Amino acid sequence: MKKIIIAIVAFAGLSACDIDRYPYGSMDSETIVQDPDASLESLLNGMYAQLKAWSDPMHRMGEYAGDNMMIRGSSTDAFYEFISYSRTPNNYRLTQFWNSGYKAIAQASNIIAMIDEGQSPEIDNKIGESYYVRGMMYFYLTRAFGRPYYQNPETNLGVPIVNGTPDDVINLELEDRATVKESYEQAISDLKKAEELLNLDKVPIYASKEAAQAMLSRIYLFMSGTYTSPNTAYAQLAVDYADKVINSGKYSLLPREEFMKYNTFIPENNEETIFAIKRVASEFSGFDHYYGVGGMYANLGGMGWGEMYASAKYIALLNETGRNDWRPDSYNMVDARAAFIEPTYSKDANTGEFKEVFRFIKDDNGSLNYVQAAISRTAGVISCKEGDNTYILTPIDTEQEIYSILYKDGKTYRGVIDNFITLNRVYPQFYITKASREGEESHLHSPVISRLGEVYLNRAEAYAKLGNYEAALNDLNMIRERAIENGGYNSLDATNASTRIDKERQLELAYQAERSYDVFRNGKELTRQYPGPHNQFEDISANDFRVIYYIPQDAINSYPGTLTQNPTQ
After folding, report:
1. What is the pLDDT of residues 501-557, one digit of tens each?
2. Do residues 507 and 483 make contact, with C-beta atoms less than 8 angstroms apart?
3. Which of 111, 178, 214, 539 has the smallest set of CB atoms within 10 Å of its CB?
4. DSSP of 92-142, one letter per residue?
5. Widest CA span of the chain, in angstroms?
6. So which residues are the signal peptide here (predicted)?
Protein backbone atom coordinates (compact mmCIF):
# COMPACT_ATOMS: atom_id res chain seq x y z
CA MET A 1 0.00 0.00 0.00
CA LYS A 2 1.43 3.40 -0.95
CA LYS A 3 2.63 5.71 1.77
CA ILE A 4 1.04 9.12 1.23
CA ILE A 5 0.17 12.17 3.24
CA ILE A 6 -3.47 13.22 3.46
CA ALA A 7 -4.67 16.57 4.77
CA ILE A 8 -7.62 16.55 7.12
CA VAL A 9 -9.56 19.23 8.89
CA ALA A 10 -10.92 17.24 11.83
CA PHE A 11 -9.13 14.55 13.77
CA ALA A 12 -11.40 13.71 16.67
CA GLY A 13 -10.22 10.74 18.68
CA LEU A 14 -6.51 11.10 17.73
CA SER A 15 -3.96 12.22 20.29
CA ALA A 16 -1.18 14.65 19.47
CA CYS A 17 1.48 11.96 19.72
CA ASP A 18 -0.22 10.04 16.91
CA ILE A 19 0.63 12.75 14.41
CA ASP A 20 3.56 14.67 15.85
CA ARG A 21 5.83 13.39 13.07
CA TYR A 22 3.62 14.85 10.36
CA PRO A 23 2.45 18.31 9.32
CA TYR A 24 -0.47 19.72 11.27
CA GLY A 25 -3.73 18.27 10.00
CA SER A 26 -2.03 15.32 8.29
CA MET A 27 -1.95 11.57 8.75
CA ASP A 28 0.26 8.84 7.34
CA SER A 29 -1.36 5.92 5.54
CA GLU A 30 0.44 3.40 7.78
CA THR A 31 -1.27 4.91 10.81
CA ILE A 32 -4.60 4.58 9.04
CA VAL A 33 -4.27 0.94 8.05
CA GLN A 34 -3.29 -0.07 11.61
CA ASP A 35 -6.76 1.01 12.76
CA PRO A 36 -8.73 1.83 9.63
CA ASP A 37 -12.11 2.16 11.27
CA ALA A 38 -10.97 4.69 13.88
CA SER A 39 -8.81 6.60 11.41
CA LEU A 40 -11.49 6.64 8.74
CA GLU A 41 -13.89 8.41 11.07
CA SER A 42 -11.47 11.31 11.39
CA LEU A 43 -10.66 11.35 7.70
CA LEU A 44 -14.34 11.41 6.81
CA ASN A 45 -14.95 14.25 9.26
CA GLY A 46 -12.30 16.21 7.42
CA MET A 47 -13.88 15.42 4.08
CA TYR A 48 -17.34 16.48 5.25
CA ALA A 49 -15.85 19.64 6.79
CA GLN A 50 -14.78 20.79 3.32
CA LEU A 51 -18.44 20.75 2.30
CA LYS A 52 -19.22 23.46 4.84
CA ALA A 53 -16.86 25.96 3.20
CA TRP A 54 -17.99 24.80 -0.25
CA SER A 55 -21.72 25.13 0.43
CA ASP A 56 -21.69 28.90 0.91
CA PRO A 57 -20.46 29.90 -2.58
CA MET A 58 -22.37 26.92 -4.02
CA HIS A 59 -25.61 28.50 -2.81
CA ARG A 60 -24.76 32.00 -3.95
CA MET A 61 -23.67 30.90 -7.43
CA GLY A 62 -26.80 28.83 -8.02
CA GLU A 63 -29.41 31.08 -6.42
CA TYR A 64 -28.20 34.62 -7.05
CA ALA A 65 -27.94 33.94 -10.78
CA GLY A 66 -31.63 33.02 -10.88
CA ASP A 67 -34.88 34.94 -10.59
CA ASN A 68 -36.18 34.08 -7.13
CA MET A 69 -34.46 36.97 -5.35
CA MET A 70 -33.50 40.61 -5.71
CA ILE A 71 -30.94 42.75 -3.93
CA ARG A 72 -31.57 46.27 -2.61
CA GLY A 73 -28.68 47.78 -4.56
CA SER A 74 -25.36 47.11 -6.20
CA SER A 75 -22.58 45.76 -3.99
CA THR A 76 -18.80 45.58 -3.97
CA ASP A 77 -19.00 42.00 -2.69
CA ALA A 78 -17.84 39.38 -5.16
CA PHE A 79 -21.28 37.75 -5.09
CA TYR A 80 -22.76 40.71 -6.97
CA GLU A 81 -21.15 39.36 -10.13
CA PHE A 82 -23.42 36.32 -9.82
CA ILE A 83 -26.48 38.58 -9.78
CA SER A 84 -25.37 41.05 -12.45
CA TYR A 85 -23.81 38.48 -14.82
CA SER A 86 -20.67 40.63 -14.99
CA ARG A 87 -18.47 37.55 -14.96
CA THR A 88 -14.79 37.82 -14.03
CA PRO A 89 -12.22 35.15 -13.15
CA ASN A 90 -10.86 37.17 -10.20
CA ASN A 91 -13.62 36.37 -7.75
CA TYR A 92 -12.72 35.04 -4.33
CA ARG A 93 -16.07 33.29 -3.91
CA LEU A 94 -15.49 31.36 -7.13
CA THR A 95 -12.06 30.45 -5.82
CA GLN A 96 -13.55 29.24 -2.52
CA PHE A 97 -16.04 27.06 -4.41
CA TRP A 98 -13.29 25.59 -6.62
CA ASN A 99 -10.74 25.06 -3.85
CA SER A 100 -13.15 23.55 -1.33
CA GLY A 101 -14.61 21.30 -4.01
CA TYR A 102 -11.22 19.97 -5.06
CA LYS A 103 -10.04 19.59 -1.47
CA ALA A 104 -13.09 17.39 -0.85
CA ILE A 105 -12.28 15.44 -4.03
CA ALA A 106 -8.67 15.01 -2.92
CA GLN A 107 -9.58 13.81 0.55
CA ALA A 108 -12.21 11.44 -0.78
CA SER A 109 -9.79 10.12 -3.41
CA ASN A 110 -7.04 9.45 -0.90
CA ILE A 111 -9.40 7.57 1.39
CA ILE A 112 -10.49 5.46 -1.58
CA ALA A 113 -6.88 4.81 -2.57
CA MET A 114 -5.53 3.80 0.83
CA ILE A 115 -8.37 1.72 2.29
CA ASP A 116 -9.21 -1.72 0.90
CA GLU A 117 -12.83 -2.71 0.40
CA GLY A 118 -14.30 -5.86 1.90
CA GLN A 119 -12.88 -5.58 5.41
CA SER A 120 -16.26 -4.95 7.01
CA PRO A 121 -19.67 -3.47 6.11
CA GLU A 122 -18.78 -0.42 8.21
CA ILE A 123 -15.54 0.28 6.34
CA ASP A 124 -17.20 -0.35 2.98
CA ASN A 125 -19.89 2.16 3.92
CA LYS A 126 -17.29 4.80 4.73
CA ILE A 127 -15.52 4.21 1.44
CA GLY A 128 -18.94 4.57 -0.18
CA GLU A 129 -19.37 7.93 1.53
CA SER A 130 -16.11 9.05 -0.06
CA TYR A 131 -17.30 8.00 -3.50
CA TYR A 132 -20.55 9.90 -2.94
CA VAL A 133 -18.81 13.13 -1.99
CA ARG A 134 -16.37 12.87 -4.91
CA GLY A 135 -19.14 12.18 -7.41
CA MET A 136 -21.29 14.99 -6.06
CA MET A 137 -18.38 17.45 -6.22
CA TYR A 138 -17.62 16.57 -9.84
CA PHE A 139 -21.25 17.13 -10.77
CA TYR A 140 -21.56 20.48 -9.00
CA LEU A 141 -18.26 21.71 -10.39
CA THR A 142 -19.18 20.63 -13.92
CA ARG A 143 -22.58 22.30 -13.94
CA ALA A 144 -21.00 25.55 -12.71
CA PHE A 145 -18.03 25.65 -15.11
CA GLY A 146 -19.24 23.47 -17.99
CA ARG A 147 -22.02 24.26 -20.43
CA PRO A 148 -25.47 22.62 -20.19
CA TYR A 149 -25.29 18.97 -21.18
CA TYR A 150 -27.51 19.22 -24.26
CA GLN A 151 -24.96 21.60 -25.83
CA ASN A 152 -22.25 19.40 -27.37
CA PRO A 153 -21.01 17.59 -24.25
CA GLU A 154 -18.43 15.66 -26.28
CA THR A 155 -16.48 18.85 -27.09
CA ASN A 156 -17.43 21.44 -24.45
CA LEU A 157 -15.04 21.48 -21.52
CA GLY A 158 -15.99 20.33 -18.05
CA VAL A 159 -13.47 20.21 -15.20
CA PRO A 160 -10.13 18.51 -14.52
CA ILE A 161 -10.41 14.95 -13.24
CA VAL A 162 -7.84 14.66 -10.47
CA ASN A 163 -8.44 11.62 -8.30
CA GLY A 164 -5.94 11.50 -5.48
CA THR A 165 -2.38 12.50 -4.74
CA PRO A 166 0.00 11.62 -7.60
CA ASP A 167 3.16 9.62 -6.83
CA ASP A 168 5.50 12.35 -8.08
CA VAL A 169 4.34 15.70 -6.75
CA ILE A 170 7.67 17.38 -7.58
CA ASN A 171 7.38 16.93 -11.34
CA LEU A 172 3.61 17.10 -11.35
CA GLU A 173 1.91 17.75 -14.70
CA LEU A 174 -1.88 17.42 -14.65
CA GLU A 175 -4.23 16.99 -17.59
CA ASP A 176 -6.33 19.88 -18.84
CA ARG A 177 -10.08 19.94 -18.31
CA ALA A 178 -12.02 16.86 -19.36
CA THR A 179 -15.06 17.30 -21.58
CA VAL A 180 -18.50 17.82 -20.07
CA LYS A 181 -19.37 14.25 -21.08
CA GLU A 182 -16.26 12.82 -19.41
CA SER A 183 -16.87 14.90 -16.30
CA TYR A 184 -20.44 13.64 -16.01
CA GLU A 185 -19.23 10.09 -16.57
CA GLN A 186 -16.78 10.47 -13.68
CA ALA A 187 -19.56 11.73 -11.39
CA ILE A 188 -21.86 8.89 -12.43
CA SER A 189 -19.17 6.25 -11.99
CA ASP A 190 -18.41 7.49 -8.47
CA LEU A 191 -22.05 7.66 -7.47
CA LYS A 192 -22.78 4.18 -8.79
CA LYS A 193 -19.84 2.88 -6.79
CA ALA A 194 -21.21 4.73 -3.76
CA GLU A 195 -24.59 3.11 -4.33
CA GLU A 196 -22.90 -0.30 -4.35
CA LEU A 197 -20.91 0.23 -1.15
CA LEU A 198 -23.29 2.26 1.01
CA ASN A 199 -25.14 -0.26 3.13
CA LEU A 200 -25.90 1.36 6.50
CA ASP A 201 -28.89 3.43 7.53
CA LYS A 202 -27.51 6.65 8.97
CA VAL A 203 -29.04 10.06 9.60
CA PRO A 204 -29.15 12.31 6.52
CA ILE A 205 -26.07 14.35 7.40
CA TYR A 206 -24.09 11.38 6.06
CA ALA A 207 -24.10 9.94 2.58
CA SER A 208 -26.41 6.98 2.01
CA LYS A 209 -27.38 4.66 -0.80
CA GLU A 210 -30.50 6.74 -1.37
CA ALA A 211 -28.47 9.98 -1.39
CA ALA A 212 -26.39 8.53 -4.23
CA GLN A 213 -29.54 7.44 -6.06
CA ALA A 214 -31.16 10.86 -5.61
CA MET A 215 -28.07 12.54 -7.04
CA LEU A 216 -27.99 10.11 -9.96
CA SER A 217 -31.64 10.91 -10.65
CA ARG A 218 -30.75 14.61 -10.82
CA ILE A 219 -27.66 14.06 -12.97
CA TYR A 220 -29.55 11.96 -15.52
CA LEU A 221 -32.26 14.63 -15.56
CA PHE A 222 -29.58 17.21 -16.40
CA MET A 223 -28.52 14.91 -19.25
CA SER A 224 -32.06 14.32 -20.50
CA GLY A 225 -32.10 17.14 -23.05
CA THR A 226 -34.80 19.74 -23.44
CA TYR A 227 -38.55 19.27 -23.58
CA THR A 228 -38.52 19.83 -27.33
CA SER A 229 -35.54 17.55 -27.94
CA PRO A 230 -35.35 15.06 -25.08
CA ASN A 231 -32.83 12.29 -24.62
CA THR A 232 -35.21 9.52 -23.64
CA ALA A 233 -32.49 7.08 -22.54
CA TYR A 234 -31.29 9.48 -19.88
CA ALA A 235 -34.85 10.48 -18.98
CA GLN A 236 -35.62 6.81 -18.30
CA LEU A 237 -32.55 6.53 -16.07
CA ALA A 238 -33.72 9.60 -14.14
CA VAL A 239 -37.01 7.78 -13.59
CA ASP A 240 -35.26 4.56 -12.58
CA TYR A 241 -33.13 6.21 -9.91
CA ALA A 242 -36.02 8.28 -8.61
CA ASP A 243 -37.99 5.02 -8.31
CA LYS A 244 -35.25 3.55 -6.13
CA VAL A 245 -35.41 6.45 -3.68
CA ILE A 246 -39.18 6.68 -3.56
CA ASN A 247 -39.71 2.92 -3.33
CA SER A 248 -37.14 2.57 -0.54
CA GLY A 249 -39.80 3.82 1.86
CA LYS A 250 -37.14 5.53 3.97
CA TYR A 251 -38.39 9.06 3.35
CA SER A 252 -41.77 10.74 3.31
CA LEU A 253 -43.11 14.11 2.23
CA LEU A 254 -43.79 16.24 5.27
CA PRO A 255 -47.46 17.10 5.81
CA ARG A 256 -48.38 20.62 4.75
CA GLU A 257 -48.23 22.21 8.20
CA GLU A 258 -44.87 20.64 9.00
CA PHE A 259 -43.49 21.47 5.55
CA MET A 260 -44.21 25.14 6.24
CA LYS A 261 -41.65 24.86 9.09
CA TYR A 262 -39.12 22.82 7.08
CA ASN A 263 -36.33 25.30 7.72
CA THR A 264 -36.67 24.99 11.51
CA PHE A 265 -36.05 21.22 11.71
CA ILE A 266 -32.54 19.88 12.17
CA PRO A 267 -31.80 17.54 9.25
CA GLU A 268 -31.45 14.48 11.51
CA ASN A 269 -35.12 14.88 12.48
CA ASN A 270 -36.52 15.62 9.03
CA GLU A 271 -38.22 12.69 7.30
CA GLU A 272 -38.02 14.37 3.88
CA THR A 273 -34.31 15.24 3.91
CA ILE A 274 -32.08 12.73 2.10
CA PHE A 275 -28.77 14.53 2.49
CA ALA A 276 -27.85 17.86 4.05
CA ILE A 277 -24.56 19.49 5.03
CA LYS A 278 -24.69 19.74 8.81
CA ARG A 279 -23.97 23.12 10.40
CA VAL A 280 -24.04 23.85 14.14
CA ALA A 281 -24.52 27.09 16.05
CA SER A 282 -21.01 27.00 17.53
CA GLU A 283 -19.62 27.59 14.00
CA PHE A 284 -21.28 31.02 14.04
CA SER A 285 -20.30 33.09 17.05
CA GLY A 286 -21.77 36.51 17.69
CA PHE A 287 -22.08 38.68 14.60
CA ASP A 288 -20.80 35.85 12.40
CA HIS A 289 -24.44 34.88 11.83
CA TYR A 290 -24.45 37.87 9.50
CA TYR A 291 -22.25 35.98 7.10
CA GLY A 292 -24.27 32.82 6.72
CA VAL A 293 -26.41 32.33 3.64
CA GLY A 294 -29.56 33.43 5.48
CA GLY A 295 -27.91 36.60 6.75
CA MET A 296 -28.34 38.31 3.38
CA TYR A 297 -32.00 37.28 3.14
CA ALA A 298 -33.26 38.62 6.47
CA ASN A 299 -32.44 40.33 9.75
CA LEU A 300 -33.75 38.09 12.52
CA GLY A 301 -33.32 38.98 16.15
CA GLY A 302 -30.79 41.62 15.24
CA MET A 303 -28.73 39.18 13.16
CA GLY A 304 -28.22 39.46 9.41
CA TRP A 305 -27.85 42.16 6.78
CA GLY A 306 -31.32 41.64 5.35
CA GLU A 307 -30.45 43.09 1.94
CA MET A 308 -31.90 40.45 -0.41
CA TYR A 309 -35.60 39.79 -0.79
CA ALA A 310 -38.01 37.51 -2.61
CA SER A 311 -38.39 38.79 -6.16
CA ALA A 312 -41.68 40.14 -7.41
CA LYS A 313 -41.63 37.32 -9.96
CA TYR A 314 -41.44 34.68 -7.26
CA ILE A 315 -44.14 36.38 -5.17
CA ALA A 316 -46.39 36.50 -8.24
CA LEU A 317 -45.88 32.75 -8.73
CA LEU A 318 -46.82 32.13 -5.11
CA ASN A 319 -49.95 34.22 -5.59
CA GLU A 320 -50.96 32.68 -8.90
CA THR A 321 -53.49 30.28 -7.36
CA GLY A 322 -54.69 32.76 -4.76
CA ARG A 323 -53.33 35.64 -2.75
CA ASN A 324 -51.08 34.76 0.16
CA ASP A 325 -51.84 37.22 2.92
CA TRP A 326 -48.96 37.77 5.35
CA ARG A 327 -50.74 40.45 7.44
CA PRO A 328 -50.81 39.41 11.11
CA ASP A 329 -54.56 39.91 11.44
CA SER A 330 -55.45 37.95 8.30
CA TYR A 331 -52.54 35.54 7.89
CA ASN A 332 -53.42 32.99 5.22
CA MET A 333 -50.99 30.95 3.15
CA VAL A 334 -52.67 29.66 -0.01
CA ASP A 335 -49.35 28.21 -1.12
CA ALA A 336 -47.40 26.57 1.70
CA ARG A 337 -44.14 27.79 0.15
CA ALA A 338 -45.18 31.36 1.00
CA ALA A 339 -44.49 30.53 4.66
CA PHE A 340 -40.79 31.00 3.92
CA ILE A 341 -41.41 34.67 3.05
CA GLU A 342 -41.87 37.29 5.78
CA PRO A 343 -42.62 40.91 4.82
CA THR A 344 -41.42 43.44 7.41
CA TYR A 345 -44.69 45.21 8.20
CA SER A 346 -44.18 48.34 10.30
CA LYS A 347 -46.62 50.29 12.43
CA ASP A 348 -47.15 54.02 12.28
CA ALA A 349 -44.99 55.71 14.93
CA ASN A 350 -47.83 58.08 15.89
CA THR A 351 -50.88 55.79 15.88
CA GLY A 352 -49.24 52.47 16.70
CA GLU A 353 -51.34 50.92 13.92
CA PHE A 354 -50.44 49.36 10.61
CA LYS A 355 -50.79 51.72 7.67
CA GLU A 356 -52.90 50.50 4.75
CA VAL A 357 -51.42 50.99 1.29
CA PHE A 358 -52.07 50.00 -2.28
CA ARG A 359 -48.91 48.28 -3.45
CA PHE A 360 -48.17 47.86 -7.12
CA ILE A 361 -45.23 47.87 -9.51
CA LYS A 362 -44.95 50.67 -12.04
CA ASP A 363 -42.77 51.19 -15.08
CA ASP A 364 -40.84 54.33 -14.29
CA ASN A 365 -39.23 55.33 -17.58
CA GLY A 366 -38.00 51.83 -18.31
CA SER A 367 -37.27 50.90 -14.71
CA LEU A 368 -39.65 48.79 -12.65
CA ASN A 369 -40.25 50.05 -9.12
CA TYR A 370 -42.59 49.35 -6.23
CA VAL A 371 -45.15 51.93 -5.12
CA GLN A 372 -46.85 51.81 -1.72
CA ALA A 373 -49.53 54.49 -1.88
CA ALA A 374 -51.61 55.27 1.22
CA ILE A 375 -55.29 54.49 0.75
CA SER A 376 -58.48 56.12 2.02
CA ARG A 377 -62.04 54.84 2.08
CA THR A 378 -64.95 57.21 1.52
CA ALA A 379 -68.57 56.18 0.93
CA GLY A 380 -67.57 52.78 -0.40
CA VAL A 381 -64.93 54.21 -2.73
CA ILE A 382 -61.31 53.28 -2.16
CA SER A 383 -58.59 55.60 -3.43
CA CYS A 384 -54.85 55.88 -3.04
CA LYS A 385 -52.56 58.87 -3.19
CA GLU A 386 -49.04 59.13 -4.57
CA GLY A 387 -47.57 62.60 -4.35
CA ASP A 388 -50.18 65.02 -5.63
CA ASN A 389 -52.05 62.36 -7.59
CA THR A 390 -55.09 60.47 -6.33
CA TYR A 391 -56.30 57.27 -8.00
CA ILE A 392 -59.56 55.37 -7.67
CA LEU A 393 -59.11 51.64 -7.12
CA THR A 394 -61.09 49.44 -9.49
CA PRO A 395 -62.05 46.05 -7.98
CA ILE A 396 -60.65 42.88 -9.53
CA ASP A 397 -61.22 40.53 -6.59
CA THR A 398 -62.54 42.31 -3.52
CA GLU A 399 -62.36 39.21 -1.32
CA GLN A 400 -58.61 39.01 -1.91
CA GLU A 401 -58.32 42.83 -2.01
CA ILE A 402 -56.86 42.86 -5.49
CA TYR A 403 -57.48 46.08 -7.44
CA SER A 404 -56.22 48.08 -10.40
CA ILE A 405 -55.65 51.75 -11.08
CA LEU A 406 -55.33 53.84 -14.23
CA TYR A 407 -52.01 55.54 -13.62
CA LYS A 408 -50.87 58.96 -14.78
CA ASP A 409 -48.70 57.39 -17.49
CA GLY A 410 -51.85 55.98 -19.09
CA LYS A 411 -51.08 52.42 -18.03
CA THR A 412 -53.27 50.22 -15.88
CA TYR A 413 -51.48 48.65 -12.93
CA ARG A 414 -52.70 45.79 -10.79
CA GLY A 415 -51.89 45.54 -7.09
CA VAL A 416 -53.12 44.64 -3.62
CA ILE A 417 -54.27 46.42 -0.51
CA ASP A 418 -51.76 45.53 2.17
CA ASN A 419 -49.98 46.95 5.18
CA PHE A 420 -46.99 49.17 4.61
CA ILE A 421 -43.75 47.16 4.36
CA THR A 422 -40.53 48.75 5.61
CA LEU A 423 -38.30 49.92 2.78
CA ASN A 424 -34.59 49.31 2.31
CA ARG A 425 -33.66 52.08 -0.06
CA VAL A 426 -36.76 51.96 -2.26
CA TYR A 427 -37.63 48.26 -1.97
CA PRO A 428 -40.14 46.61 0.40
CA GLN A 429 -38.41 43.97 2.51
CA PHE A 430 -39.86 40.59 1.63
CA TYR A 431 -37.54 38.62 3.89
CA ILE A 432 -36.65 35.04 2.98
CA THR A 433 -36.34 32.60 5.91
CA LYS A 434 -35.88 29.28 4.11
CA ALA A 435 -32.15 29.38 4.87
CA SER A 436 -32.58 30.45 8.50
CA ARG A 437 -33.99 29.45 11.90
CA GLU A 438 -32.80 25.85 12.05
CA GLY A 439 -33.50 24.84 15.64
CA GLU A 440 -34.85 28.40 15.92
CA GLU A 441 -31.23 29.63 15.93
CA SER A 442 -31.21 32.93 13.98
CA HIS A 443 -29.62 32.09 10.61
CA LEU A 444 -28.44 28.59 11.37
CA HIS A 445 -28.98 26.48 8.27
CA SER A 446 -27.79 23.07 7.12
CA PRO A 447 -27.91 23.32 3.31
CA VAL A 448 -30.20 20.70 1.81
CA ILE A 449 -28.58 18.83 -1.06
CA SER A 450 -31.35 16.29 -1.75
CA ARG A 451 -34.85 15.81 -0.43
CA LEU A 452 -37.80 13.70 -1.44
CA GLY A 453 -39.77 16.63 -2.87
CA GLU A 454 -37.10 17.17 -5.51
CA VAL A 455 -37.00 13.46 -6.38
CA TYR A 456 -40.73 13.49 -7.19
CA LEU A 457 -40.19 16.53 -9.40
CA ASN A 458 -37.21 14.87 -11.10
CA ARG A 459 -39.41 11.92 -11.96
CA ALA A 460 -42.27 14.14 -13.11
CA GLU A 461 -40.03 15.96 -15.59
CA ALA A 462 -38.42 12.76 -16.81
CA TYR A 463 -41.83 11.14 -17.33
CA ALA A 464 -42.94 14.19 -19.33
CA LYS A 465 -39.88 13.93 -21.56
CA LEU A 466 -40.79 10.27 -22.11
CA GLY A 467 -44.31 11.29 -23.10
CA ASN A 468 -45.88 9.58 -20.06
CA TYR A 469 -47.96 12.56 -19.02
CA GLU A 470 -50.30 10.64 -16.74
CA ALA A 471 -47.42 9.46 -14.56
CA ALA A 472 -45.84 12.93 -14.73
CA LEU A 473 -49.12 14.50 -13.56
CA ASN A 474 -49.35 12.15 -10.59
CA ASP A 475 -45.86 13.07 -9.40
CA LEU A 476 -46.37 16.77 -10.09
CA ASN A 477 -49.57 16.83 -8.08
CA MET A 478 -47.92 15.01 -5.17
CA ILE A 479 -45.90 18.18 -4.66
CA ARG A 480 -48.48 20.72 -5.76
CA GLU A 481 -51.32 19.38 -3.63
CA ARG A 482 -49.08 19.30 -0.58
CA ALA A 483 -48.41 23.01 -1.08
CA ILE A 484 -51.83 24.15 -2.33
CA GLU A 485 -54.93 22.50 -0.95
CA ASN A 486 -57.07 21.26 -3.85
CA GLY A 487 -54.56 22.92 -6.17
CA GLY A 488 -53.66 19.94 -8.32
CA TYR A 489 -53.76 20.15 -12.10
CA ASN A 490 -56.48 18.25 -13.96
CA SER A 491 -54.33 17.47 -16.96
CA LEU A 492 -50.83 17.54 -18.35
CA ASP A 493 -49.78 17.26 -21.97
CA ALA A 494 -47.16 18.36 -24.45
CA THR A 495 -48.59 21.88 -24.60
CA ASN A 496 -48.28 22.69 -20.90
CA ALA A 497 -45.91 20.16 -19.27
CA SER A 498 -42.80 22.31 -19.63
CA THR A 499 -44.44 25.39 -18.12
CA ARG A 500 -46.16 23.62 -15.26
CA ILE A 501 -43.32 21.35 -14.19
CA ASP A 502 -40.70 24.08 -14.39
CA LYS A 503 -42.97 26.41 -12.44
CA GLU A 504 -43.38 23.82 -9.71
CA ARG A 505 -39.64 23.26 -9.53
CA GLN A 506 -39.13 27.00 -9.14
CA LEU A 507 -41.72 27.25 -6.37
CA GLU A 508 -40.61 24.12 -4.52
CA LEU A 509 -36.82 24.36 -4.84
CA ALA A 510 -36.42 28.12 -4.42
CA TYR A 511 -33.44 29.16 -2.28
CA GLN A 512 -31.82 25.73 -2.67
CA ALA A 513 -29.39 26.84 -5.42
CA GLU A 514 -31.13 25.01 -8.27
CA ARG A 515 -33.03 27.66 -10.20
CA SER A 516 -30.49 29.11 -12.64
CA TYR A 517 -29.20 25.66 -13.60
CA ASP A 518 -32.77 24.40 -14.15
CA VAL A 519 -33.51 27.25 -16.56
CA PHE A 520 -30.44 26.82 -18.73
CA ARG A 521 -30.24 23.00 -18.84
CA ASN A 522 -33.66 23.02 -20.54
CA GLY A 523 -32.55 25.59 -23.10
CA LYS A 524 -34.71 28.40 -21.75
CA GLU A 525 -34.11 32.11 -21.20
CA LEU A 526 -33.80 33.68 -17.77
CA THR A 527 -36.08 36.72 -17.52
CA ARG A 528 -35.93 39.09 -14.57
CA GLN A 529 -38.48 41.80 -15.28
CA TYR A 530 -39.04 42.91 -11.71
CA PRO A 531 -37.74 45.65 -9.40
CA GLY A 532 -34.08 45.61 -8.45
CA PRO A 533 -30.76 47.10 -9.56
CA HIS A 534 -30.07 44.31 -12.05
CA ASN A 535 -30.62 44.78 -15.79
CA GLN A 536 -34.37 44.24 -15.62
CA PHE A 537 -35.05 43.81 -19.32
CA GLU A 538 -32.04 41.73 -20.31
CA ASP A 539 -32.94 38.14 -21.08
CA ILE A 540 -30.12 35.65 -20.53
CA SER A 541 -30.16 32.96 -23.21
CA ALA A 542 -29.06 29.41 -22.47
CA ASN A 543 -26.42 29.96 -25.19
CA ASP A 544 -24.99 33.08 -23.52
CA PHE A 545 -21.33 32.71 -22.56
CA ARG A 546 -22.19 34.03 -19.08
CA VAL A 547 -24.40 31.03 -18.28
CA ILE A 548 -21.26 29.37 -16.90
CA TYR A 549 -18.60 30.80 -14.64
CA TYR A 550 -14.97 31.50 -15.41
CA ILE A 551 -12.39 29.15 -14.01
CA PRO A 552 -10.87 31.10 -11.07
CA GLN A 553 -7.69 32.83 -12.19
CA ASP A 554 -5.94 31.71 -9.01
CA ALA A 555 -6.63 28.10 -10.01
CA ILE A 556 -5.20 28.67 -13.49
CA ASN A 557 -2.10 30.39 -12.10
CA SER A 558 -1.32 27.57 -9.66
CA TYR A 559 -2.31 24.63 -11.85
CA PRO A 560 0.58 22.27 -12.73
CA GLY A 561 -0.24 22.10 -16.40
CA THR A 562 -2.62 23.78 -18.84
CA LEU A 563 -6.00 24.76 -17.44
CA THR A 564 -8.10 26.23 -20.25
CA GLN A 565 -10.29 29.23 -19.40
CA ASN A 566 -13.93 29.48 -20.49
CA PRO A 567 -14.76 31.76 -23.44
CA THR A 568 -15.03 35.46 -22.66
CA GLN A 569 -17.65 36.30 -25.25
Report:
1. 999 999 999 999 999 999 999 999 999 999 999 999 999 999 999 999 999 999 999
2. yes
3. 539
4. HHHHHHHHHHHHHHHHHHHHHHHS-TTS-HHHHHHHHHHHHHHHHHHHHHH
5. 89
6. none
